[in-house]
Every structure is written in C-alpha cells, then in structure tokens.
Amino acid sequence: MPNTPAIPLPSVPRAATPLAARALTWYYLVGTPLFALADLALGISVRAAFFDGQPVLRLLYYAVAFGCGVAAVKLPAWSGLVGLVESGANIVLLVFGVMLGYFQALDAAIADRPLLSPFAGTSVVNLVLSGAMLSVAYIRHQAAIGPAFRDR
Predict the structure, then answer these.
(1) pTM (two decimals)
(2) Can you say how many angstroms the Cα of residue 8 is from the centroid of all Cα atoms in its chain?
(3) Theoretical Cys-Cys bridge with 83: which of 33, 65, 106, 141, CB 3.0 to 4.6 Å?
(4) Residue 92 covered by a domain
(5) CA–CA separation, 94 vs 150, rounded Å?
(6) Is 125 within a domain?
(7) In the chain, how many domains are there?
(8) Each residue's pLDDT tens digit, 109-118
C-alpha cells in the first residue's frame, strides 16, 4: 500500500462571539420550550410546521433542538458548529416541508380531490420568516466556526 500523506484534521472551532453565543443559548434553552409549549398547548406551530400530523416527530424535533442548546452550553467552543449544523438541517426540513405541500397538492389534483393550497396564510409567513432567519443563522454560524471547517 503506497504511503499517502495524512489528511490534516480540522482544529477545534473557535467560540462564537460572546453575544452570539448567549443569543444561541437563549434561542435553544428558552425559545425551544416556548415554541414547543405554543405548539402543544395552543396549536401554534411556527418552528416545526413541517411536522404537521406527525406528533412523535415533532416532539423528537423539539428534543433535538433543546439538546443542541445543551451542547452549546456544555461545549461553548463548539457552539458555532452546533448552530451551523442545526440551521443547515432546518433549511433542509423547510425545503422538504414546502416540497411535501406541493406534492400533496399535485396528488389531490391527480385524484380529483378538492385542492387545498399549501401556500396560504400562515404557511407563507412561516416559509418567509423561517427561510430568512435560517439563512442568516447559517451564514453567521459559518463565519463563527472559522476557516478550519468552513473551507472543507
């Protein structure tokens, strides 16, 4: 087997700015339970709208988001990477939620059932607000972790 050079491992990411780290902590540790409470008690699903009709997945999502907050507190040097992975995963879930609504509308049209627009009212507000917030969060966390991870 030829001798190949070792691939350098990325260094531990530097901590996010103190203000960003505190904001991330509050978002996860305070915001997540508030969003979960609003969702479960009041039926207002802002943060996990893509899990409509899937209560177990919705609770799992809130538990993972809360776990991200605990990880950011326990491992502050990794808070930027935790935020980057979490916001990236949320972007994927948001896109998936939009695609799912679109495919359900197509399915209803093919089956000659009444069409319910997946892009009405709160769905559009959720898409615009979440998409904007997640894009900004992803870019900010990418800047916070430094070139060791960003350039890979």
Answers:
(1) 0.69
(2) 29
(3) 141
(4) yes
(5) 23
(6) yes
(7) 1
(8) 899 888 777 7
CA-to-CA distance for 95 and 87, rounded, in angstroms? 12
Which structural domain range is residue 38 located in? 18-146
Furthest-apart CA atoms within the chain: distance in Å:
65
**Helix, strand, coil tally for the chain in percent (to 5):** 75, 0, 25
CB 141 within 8 A of CB 80: yes
Read off the pLDDT of residues 80-139 as tens digits, 9 standing for 90 and up.
Answer: 888 888 888 988 988 888 888 888 888 888 998 887 777 777 677 778 888 888 888 888
What's the CA gap between 80 and 64, in Å, rounded?
A: 16
Distance CA 50, CA 126 (A): 10
Query: In 3D, which of 42, 29, 52, 65 has the Cα closest to residue 98?
Result: 52
